[in-house]
Each structure stands twice: as structure tokens, then as C-alpha cells.
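Quick review question:
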């Protein structure tokens, strides 16, 4: 690669993983400050990188697993070929993405040595150990190409315009951003990762007995019903649900101003980590060693060891002991230590 190379990063599929990839993107930019650096990312996660100053270009794409995916892949290869990239870093491990990079005529193709696709690469980097944190997983790929890491903290750069829209959202609920508040995220991309809603409700009640701050519930629109269940029984002056009401930029600023975030293992804890928000992270079937938040801020990771193998990716469980046995009283005690 030359100092003025045209470099493409093919990123992962999910918001959390894309955030985890930002230290590797930062490392590439530091090594090649004059290069044109672009990132191909699924549309659902493109907002994570929209304001990232390390990148010159964000290229949203839609994954397609239907019978038309071959033709979509050809179209994507033609589009990338017109951009004349010299080098690609394949953070994504799929063979299809590696094949698209070759069809696009990208001469240097750096990716993990996944069975069945090493022949599509010009540099196959050995996969790191399974227990490697996802941030270090992506960093290991660029390090395999001779690029030094430049820190591990993930980055997210919210748009300046989001500050005004967040002010207006606060005003709609009779709040000001300079008032002390904490944020709770009770969602997660599958049920077994979620601390019980009644545990969150009890934690809020206990917490407010010690710190009479407003509690804001965040999440996606699909998590609004869950947030409403937790909010039931509280006055609007105590608990407000903003689930489905914030953009990613607004959520980042919301978290930046919070005294604390209490959350399951999900996207908001990593967004909060990028903003140095104090975090209490609640883990059950997933591994904090692999997907825990990394930040310059204060972090407490709480998890009950119930003897199960972790990570556990079962979609159903007779009794979610790993989450049920983590009590609101325990979480409260640790939470208050971050709010001293």
C-alpha cells in the first residue's frame, strides 16, 4: 500500500460490531493519513459511521440472502470496481464478500483465514483465539497487515444538529438536559440477554430512594412496549420512556450527559462507552471478555456464574438463572458506587 492508496473496509453486520471495529479503522487512518479510506457497511449500521472523521466515504449496502443475491453481488462488485480501490480489509468473514472484492478488481485483499476462502485473499491473517474481545478481533486483522493499534476505545461522533433536537425532546417531557438523570436500557436482541423487566422496575424504585434523579428508558421502537411495562407505576416526573424516540446521534448525546447507564449486553452500552458514560453492564449468557464495554469511563460488569458454559447462544431456556439470580439489590449497591 502507498500513502495515497484507496482503501476499503468491508465491515460487520451489527451496530455493536461496527462500533467495535472503529479502533481498527482509527489504526488504518493513522498509518495512512493521506489515503482515501472508505467503509462498506450494512444500511442498518451505517449511522454508526456517518460522522466518523477517520473515513472519507461510507458505502451503505443491503445484505440479501434470497435467490437474487448473486446478481446483487455482481452489481456491488461493479460499483466497487468503479471506485478503483487498491486494498480491502475484510472485517466480515463471509466468502461472498471476499469474492465480491476479487470481482471488483481490488488487488490487495486482506482477510481472516477462514476455511474455503483463503484462495480469494492475497493476505490471509490467522483467526485469533475464540475468546478474543471483538475489538481485538478486528485489530488483529490490521495488525496482521503490519498496522499498529492506536488504542482500543470505540468511537462514535454524533452530529452537532442532534443537540438541538435532543433539547426539544427533553422540553416535550418537561425536562432540561442540565438536570441529573440516569438512563436504563432493558432491551436486547434476544430475550435470554434481558434482565427481567420487574428487576429493572425494582432497581429504579430502590435507586430513586437513594438518588431522586429522573430515569430515562431508551431503546428501539420495538422495545417501547417493554419500556412502558417498566414505567407503569411511576409518575412522569420520575420515569420517562424515550424508546423509539431518539436517533442514534441523539441517543449518544443522551448517554453522554447521563450520570449512569444501566443496561443489558446490547448496543447502547457500547455507544455509552464511546461517550465515556459510567456504565453498569448486566451480563448473563454472553461473555464480557468477548463483548464487554471498553471505555475511558467507569465501568462495572455484573454477572452471576451459575455453572453454564459462556457464551451461551440458546434461544430458549427453562430458567434464565444467570439473569434471574442477579438481584436489584445487588445491582443497586454497585450502581451507587458509580454515583458517589
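Suggested answer, residue by residue:
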Amino acid at each position: 500500500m502507498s500513502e495515497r492508496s484507496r482503501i476499503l473496509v468491508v465491515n460487520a453486520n451489527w451496530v455493536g460490531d461496527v462500533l467495535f471495529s472503529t479502533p481498527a479503522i482509527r489504526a488504518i487512518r493513522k498509518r495512512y493519513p493521506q489515503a482515501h479510506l472508505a467503509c462498506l457497511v450494512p444500511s442498518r449500521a451505517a449511522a454508526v459511521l456517518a460522522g466518523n472523521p477517520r473515513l472519507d466515504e461510507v458505502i451503505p449496502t443491503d445484505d440479501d440472502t434470497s435467490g437474487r443475491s448473486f446478481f446483487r453481488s455482481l452489481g456491488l462488485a461493479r460499483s466497487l470496481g468503479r471506485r478503483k480501490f487498491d486494498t480491502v480489509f475484510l472485517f466480515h468473514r463471509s466468502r461472498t464478500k471476499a469474492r465480491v472484492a476479487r470481482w471488483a478488481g481490488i488487488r490487495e485483499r486482506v482477510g481472516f483465514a477462514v476455511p474455503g476462502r483463503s484462495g480469494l485473499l492475497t493476505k490471509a491473517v490467522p483467526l485469533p483465539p475464540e475468546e478474543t474481545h471483538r475489538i481485538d478481533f478486528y485489530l488483529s486483522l490490521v495488525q496482521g497487515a503490519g498496522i499498529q493499534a492506536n488504542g482500543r476505545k470505540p468511537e462514535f461522533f454524533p452530529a452537532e444538529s442532534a443537540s438541538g433536537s435532543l433539547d426539544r425532546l427533553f422540553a416535550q417531557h418537561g425536562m432540561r438536559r442540565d438536570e441529573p438523570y440516569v438512563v436504563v436500557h432493558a432491551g436486547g436482541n434476544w430475550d435470554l440477554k434481558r434482565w427481567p423487566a420487574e428487576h429493572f422496575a425494582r432497581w429504579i424504585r430502590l435507586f430513586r430512594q437513594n438518588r431522586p434523579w429522573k430515569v430515562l428508558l431508551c431503546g428501539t421502537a420495538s422495545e417501547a412496549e417493554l419500556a412502558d411495562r417498566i414505567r407503569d407505576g411511576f409518575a412522569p416526573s420520575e420515569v420517562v420512556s424515550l424508546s423509539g424516540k431518539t436517533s442514534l446521534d441523539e441517543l449518544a448525546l443522551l448517554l453522554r450527559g447521563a450520570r449512569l447507564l444501566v443496561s443489558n449486553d446490547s448496543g447502547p452500552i457500547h455507544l455509552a462507552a464511546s461517550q465515556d458514560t459510567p456504565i453498569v453492564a448486566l451480563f448473563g449468557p454472553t461473555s464480557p471478555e468477548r463483548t464487554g464495554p471498553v471505555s475511558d469511563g467507569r465501568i462495572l460488569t455484573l454477572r452471576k456464574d451459575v455453572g453454564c458454559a459462556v457464551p451461551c447462544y440458546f434461544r430458549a431456556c427453562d430458567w434464565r438463572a444467570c439473569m434471574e439470580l442477579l438481584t436489584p439489590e445487588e445491582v443497586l449497591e454497585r450502581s451507587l458506587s458509580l454515583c458517589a
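Why it works: Residues 6-144 form a domain with the Rossmann fold fold (CATH 3.40.50.2000). The chain has a mean pLDDT of 91.
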